[in-house]
Structures are given as C-alpha cells and as structure tokens.
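Usage example:
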Amino acid sequence: MYVAVKGGEAAIRNAHRLLADRRRGDRSVPALTLEQIVEQLALACDRVMAEGSVHDRDLAALAIKQARGDLIEAIFLLRAYRTTLPRFGYSEPVDTAKMQVERRISATYKDLPGGQMLGPTFDYTHRLLDPSLARDETVDEPERRDGDDTPAMRVSDILAEEGLIEADGEVDSEEVGDLTRTPMEFPMARDTRLQALARGDEGFLLALGYSTQRGYARSHPFAGEIRIGEVDVEFHVPELGFAITLGRIRVTECQMVNQFQGSAKAPPQFTRGYGLVFGQSERKAMAMALCDRALRAAELGEDIVAPAQDEEFVISHSDNVQATGFVEHLKLPHYVDFQAELDLVRRMRGEHTRRRDTQDNMPEAAE
Amino acid sequence: MSDQPLLRVSGVSKFYGNRIGCKDVSFDLWPGEVLAIVGESGSGKTTLLNCISTRLMPTAGTVSYRMRDGQFRDLYRMGEAERRFLMRTDWGFVHQNPADGLRMSVSAGANVGERLMAVGERHYGNIRETATDWLGRVEIDADRIDDQPRAFSGGMRQRLQIARNLVTGPRLVFMDEPTGGLDVSVQARLLDLLRGLVNDLGLAVVVVTHDLAVARLLSHRMMVMKDGAVVETGLTDRVLDDPRAPYTQLLVSSILQV
Amino acid sequence: MTIGTDDGLATYNFAYLDEQTKRMIRRAILKGIAIPGYQVPFASREMPMPYGWGTGGVQVTASIIGPDDVLKVIDQGADDTTNAVSIRAFFAKVADVETTTETAKASIIQTRHRIPEEKLKDGQILVYQVPIPEPLRFLEPRETETRKMHALAEYGLMHVKLYEDIAKNGHIATTYAYPVKVEDRYVMDPSPTPKFDNPKMHMSDALQLFGAGREKRIYAVPPHTKVVSLDFEDYPFEIQTFEEPCAMCGAQGVYLDEVILDDRGGRMFVCSDTDYCEKRREDGHRGHLAGDAMEAAE
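Running the assembly step on the lines above writes:
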C-alpha cells in the first residue's frame, strides 16, 4: 500500500540538530569564542557588518559562528535581526575629513598634506603561506609614533579649489533615502543608490567595477584617495537642539576621480565615484566607487552601453541576501508546476509523433 | 482629398543646449499626401521627424492632428495614454533599421498581429488571416508566417515592418530613410511596393530621406533642409527640375548627375 | 548592543514584525484591495527565512494575523511539505496561534503553488507566496516600462505570447502562472499555481492576498471579483484534465500529483491537496490503490 510521505516536522528537527552538531565539530577541539572571531577574523566581521548594515562586531561574530563561517548566511542572520530593531532617527552625515586616519593613500599625488600612510594593508606582502601562523608564535608589537591631530585634507578638496572636479552632489531633500523603509523606485536618487551599493555584494560589485576597467563603460578612474579610520557618529536630538556624539565607527572611504570630456549637460572636469563601507574593506569601497560612477551615466549625459551603467540591472541584483534566497529557492518542491509541464510535454511529444507518422505514411508519389 | 489638412505643424523648433536641431518649421500635410523631407545628414530632418511624431519633445511650436472625429488636437497636450494609442492605431512609424521597429524574436505573424491584439482583437483565426493577407500584400510568402524576422533578408524585414505598421489601417505614416541600408535592386523593389501601397490606401506620409531618387519616386511635395532650417519647399517635380534656392541647386546637381 | 550569556538577547513582537511595519503593510494591502490586481510597492523587510521562500506571504500573514486566527499553511497543496511545516512552526512560535490542516477550519491559509480544492468561504483569507509578481516580466524586463504598460493598460504583448504559443504548438502552452485579467483592468500573475486553479479565483467568496517579498510588491483580489484567464475566442482557456481519478480517494476533477512507485515505470496519481484527500478517505471514498482496495486484491 502507498503511504504518503509524512513527518516533515521530525525531519526538520533532526536536520537542525545535525546542523548544530556539525557546527560544533570535534568536541575535543575548543569552541571558538566571539572574542577570537572579532579579534582574529576582523575582516570577516567587517564584511558581515557592511553588507548586513549593522555596525556591531559582536553580533557579526555571533552570526559568523552560527553560520559556520558562511559569510552570506551570516549577513542574512544580521539583516533579519536588524529589520526588527526600532528606528529612532538618522544620524548626521559623518565627516570623513575629520577622520582619525589609520591608512590613507592617494594614487594621484606623490605627496600631499597629511602624507601617505600605508597602515595595516596586505599590499606589498608576498603571498607566501606563513607556517609560523600555524604555531601561534609571538607577534611583535607595531611601531608607533605620536600622531598629529591636524586633519588630513581630502584629495577631492584639493581639486575642488581649482574647480577641476565637480562639487559634492546636492541632496534634493533634508531627508535621506532609506530603501529598508520605503519601497524602491527606479530611477533612484543617488543617496538611495549609494545605500544599495553599500549593502551590495562585494563579489558582484567587484566584477562590475572590473568590467568598467576592461572597457564596458570605461570611466578612466584614478584612486584619488582611499582612507581608513574612525569617525564620530553624531545624532541630532531635537529636545537638546544640538548634535551629540553616539560613538565612533571604523569606515573605509574611496573617492575615485574620473576623467570626463564634458557633455551637453556638464562641462569638462573631473567627476567622482564614491564608496563608503563599514570597517576595513578597500576592495568593496573601490568597487562601489567604480559602480557609483558608472551608474551616473544618465545624470552626466553619457551613453548607456554596459551592464555596470544599467541602474535597474545593477541595483536589482546586487543584494546577496535576495540573490541567494531566490537561487536557493529552486530547492523547494515545485512538483505541482512540474506536473503541469510534464503533462504538456507528454502531450506535445504525442502530437509530434502522430504528425511524423502521418508524414511518413504519405505516398511517395512526390518522388 | 478633404478640405482640411490632416497634420498642422507650426513653428516647431528643437534646441540641444545651444545647438540647433531644427528651427521654426511650419507646414500642413493633407490626407493622402506624401511629403519628403530631404537634406544631408545633420540637416535636422530626423530631429524634425521625431518632433512631429511625438517621439521627441520640441523646444517650441505646436503640432496638431485631425482625429477621426474631425477635431484637431494638439499632440503635446494629449495624455500619454491617448498619444500612445494614436501611435499604434492611426499612425505608423517605419524605421531605417527594421530591427528597431520589429520584435526580432517573435514570428512574422505575431509581428503583424500585435497591433490588432493591442486594440482588442481576440480571435486567433482572424488575426492569422489578416496577417497572412498582409504578408501577401508586402510580397512575403504565406509559409514564412511562423518564421522569425531574424531568418529574413534585409528587404523582407523592411517589408514586414511596413506590414506591421499598416495592419490597423493608419491614416498617417512616418518613414525614416526606409530604403537606407538596402542594396540598390532591393531598394527599387521596395520603393515600387511602397508607392503602390501608399496610392491604394490613400496614406498621408512624411518620409525623411537623403536620397533625392526616393523623394522623386514617392513624394508629391518636398521640403529641403539645411542646418536645421527649411531652405525650399514645393511640388517635388518643380523642386527637382527647377530648384530655386542655391543650396537645393547644389544638392540636385551633385546628386542627380550620378 | 553587546551579547549577554543568558537569553533575552533579542525579543520579538507578536507575529515577529514590529507594529509600524505591520501598519505599513496593512496600508499596502488596503490599497491593493481598493485597486484589484494592481501591484502595490511596499518596503519589504528582511525576514528570518530566505527570499524566495515565502517572505512576501509571511509578511502579509504576519500583518493580518491576530491571536484568534486559525492558520493553515500549504506548499504544493500539502500541509506537511517541509517549507509549509517550517512556516507553520514559525507562526506557532512567534504568534502562538492555533494551526490546522483543515481547510474549512482555517481563517487564514498561506499557500505556495495551489488553491485548496474545497471551496473557500466568506471570511477566509488566502495568502499567496509570489516569486515574480510581474506578469509582463519575461516579455519586458524593465520595471519602468512594465509599470507604464500597466498604467496605460497596454497588454497587447501578453496576447502576442499566447499567439506564439498557438502558432508553435497548436495550443496555449502556458501551464502555470497563467496570466489573468482582474475586474477588466489589470493583468495579474496568479503566482505559480497550475492554471487548473485559475477558475477558483474568479468570484471567490474569500479575500485573496498576494505577497512578493524579494520583489517588494503586494496585490489583492477582493471577494466577488472577476478574474478571467487570458485567451482567444477560438482558443478558449482550458484547465488540465487527468485521465484517471485519485488512486487513494477516487476523486475526479481535482489536481493530481504523479508519484513514481518503482524503477520499472510504475506510477500512480494522487490528490495534490492532502487535506482534501484525507477527508474523502475518512468519508469512506476509496481509490484503486487505497488500503482497502489493496487488501481485497491480495
């Protein structure tokens, strides 16, 4: 006798239990602590915070641990938590000119006020596996010097003094766009678009940014400036009448400077692509800046010829939580629809066979 | 011919910043009349065509059209819905490149039938019959009805585009270099076909071309443009045989001698 | 925030969503009901299940559910497919509501890919999970353009697709997510239900709500609303028919799943609506492969 498949509930329960077991792994190996993840997998935490849109290292570490190191899953966990948090208001724009800079480089000027600072970078390391890390050997303390508190001037400001670069964009309204609270609409304002890019998948934006360099909407970019460091987050409290500092966060900012011939809409001058990301993530900030510039094609009167310039295409597909959900939903049962297709294919094959048979039986008089 | 024009163009100008697209163009188009707009590339003829066919918003001027109820309506004051409806029923637009006016991945039959379905035709058999009839009229074999335009030659594609536009019985058709990009022999056949259809259907046509032979064969009247402005208008035979403006004289002598 | 060692790290509101979000979603639903078949954009939230797994339906259900509601969740017509179980468990946990598998007892039915066989009643709400709400999407990929086509009711393209089907296959070859016109105005995607279910949407006594989380759209068909499947006069809309009745309960005129019995090509057809099938068997109906029949054969 046929018995319909039952027991979905028990199956799910057991699957989750097995997942928890695999997550923990060999019990004789000490469990990872969140502190270890925060301290030693800091860049993983940074990526999860950036694309999860929550600045909280501990929560990011928890998400990474819970996701067994699957960063997109961790980002998803953080997003699903973030969405339930009450929204008190929006902070003042952070002032990156006042950043406590730990790394600051410019590819456009050899030297500049505030100097070039390499900071903690993988650049110029030789990518040779280092066995000493497996043995947990003592690591030297870093060299330190007293910093001067003079803020490092932004490269874009140097160009702006001569009028060589466009001004910072104007914002239409006092209120900043927020695609997590209002429905997305195309075409988008730049603030909302930048928000979408900041939350966007690093790999996707990297590939798109790369495509602009290879000639699909080439924008002749120069890395005007990349800076990493801490900025104050200020919140304006109406009852107090002034802004108070809520704390400091580490961010990576990239200002791309792009050659621009001028068009019907804008004079010849350098234009900007902008990237700003939580934590330390130069790759993401640079890719974001390239994409931001490519997406300004319509605004600057450029021809839209490449995927990176296509706002609907880029923004609709940049969110990895959405993308992974929809790709993976193909795992869900589709047998009702499949049944309908099965039935149709059978019918059409039947018709096809009958048609062929009739043709085959036609008298060969034509010959 | 009726005692009222079909289309009234008055003072139409289009500027791109400081650059002139076309400047202060006025004319009336009568039912069944074929008007050719000729000039070199960059003379503003395509800009003008796009302005009067509402594909481009002019900087100044008005274009009004006599609707089927006899009332003149200012095209730029119409709602978008009404304008789009007009464009797919009472008007046609034949692009130079057939791929711009056809759905390349949809069968020839559906390309012709689309306008019928858009205005509410819901009988498959009737749509197919009309499509077959129209393919015949533009000299495409009925057994190509289920083929996609990608499988067609350039001339066939252009004829298919024409059928697609004419199926709803429009009164006014815009054509942008309809024979551009075709071989000379194919051009001749297409022109012949177009002339026949325009006569049979009593279509009013505004055709943009740089080819004076096209103007000679198709049009009753012509308008010569240079640098965005109209330099001469008149009956086609008169303009070509007895050009008055120096520029027209130059154009006629340089091209027609070849 | 910091992580404590004890519970109380994160607490959640009734039915997971905060009340402001629920109000926002309810406004979208009300707008959808007021304009049947029109896709209302809404600020879809991240949900604790993946996009594409019912986040739209879950947000709609979470926004309308109250403590007295009785919830049924089906996927492919069945109550115990894994995703249905998972969503039902979610609401049992975050809203503490009564759940049921009986169609008649439910006040809210969340569904993926089917409409129950049993006729829905006045007062019931059917919530559909929708992956791609835009019926014109695969004809025109651009949102800016499809919205214009809806606004101007330019639906010729939809019929071009049906025309092509007939020209190629001799009949319309769309079997699920079959487009419908709602109240003579908006063309709507009924979600990937088999076209077999389309007639059930027409003049339904129940309220039908559609949620697409990833695509951020909500739409609705109020009770007693015209829902007409697109077709040609000479090629009218037809639903699937099955040659044999359900092997378990003997039902005819219902949607059946094909079940492979062995590796020698043996197969049987059973009701896709598990609750309907069970009810019929309780009432004594028997198909040719049901327990009793088999015993008799042995």
